[in-house]
Structures are given as structure tokens and as C-alpha cells.
Task: structure prediction
Amino acid sequence: MAGPSTQDSEVDFTNVDSIEKYIRTKQEEYQSYDWKDGDLWEQFQADFSAFTEENFKNCNLRCLRQLRALLRTRGVKVTKDKHVTIARSLYGTTQEEDQAIWSMKEIQDHIDTEGLFLSYRINRLLEKKSAQLVAQTVTAPQHPQTPLNQPVTHPQTHLAQSTHPETHLAQSATQP
Result:
């Protein structure tokens, strides 16, 4: 088995303050390098490869929420589910063989609850989806519609205006 990486040697897993300081330092690093998407996922996996679910679980929830939010906003899919702890979600992300792919529903849920992404990959998907919707709208058949506040008019027929039979008979009797 290989020895600890330089990232692992920066954290004392027996000290929660050391773990939280390491997490904050990594967050600052990810932001300063402006890592996103696959690059961020790879770096997160390398930086947190020695972490166990228990290491994450021992941390302050605010610290874990900030890390999860940073990863998600920058395109790394970290599960956000009320039935799954943040510690388990973060640990699960460190164990992925391949980077998890966001569904369009997950992307929309994130935007609705947490705001926009700082992710090239996801923003590109959204641009494509938007362009498809515009193309569908432009090519859809256009049907003229009567505004709701205007009466519908029908072409005049040669029949009399009244629909009462007596009036119709009286009008036809007077016509030559």
C-alpha cells in the first residue's frame, strides 16, 4: 500500500479542528484555481481520498454544507437528499469510479433552490436545451388567435338576422 499523499499529511484525522481547517483550505484552493466540473471532481477525489464517512461525520454541519454547495455549484454532483447525510454524500463522491452525471431535473431543482451554476458543462447543457426549445417554438405551426377581450365575428349569411320562424316567414313574404 502506498504511503499517505501530501494532501493526507496536511490533516490530523484525530482532530476535528484539523479536519475542518483542511476542508476550508481546500475550498479556498478550489475557488482560487477556479476549478469546475471534471477537474474539480478529480481534485476533490485526490484531496479527500483518505477521508472516511466518519471523518466527514465528525465535522460541523455548516462546514460540510459549504463544501457540498461549492462542489455542486461548480458542477460536481454531490447527492442532496434529506434521507442521506451530507457526510455520506461527500464520502460517496470520493468513492465514485466515474463522475456522476446530472439529470435535467436535478439541474432545474438546483437552480430553483440554490441558484445558478458556475459550471461550463452544465451551463452548456442549459444553452443547448434553451436553443432546442426556441427552435421548437419557431418551427411550431402558428395559429391566429382572437384576443380574449374581442368578440368572435362570423361571416354574414344571406339569412335574416332573426332566428324566430315568424319573422323569417314575414320577411320572405314581403320580399319579391
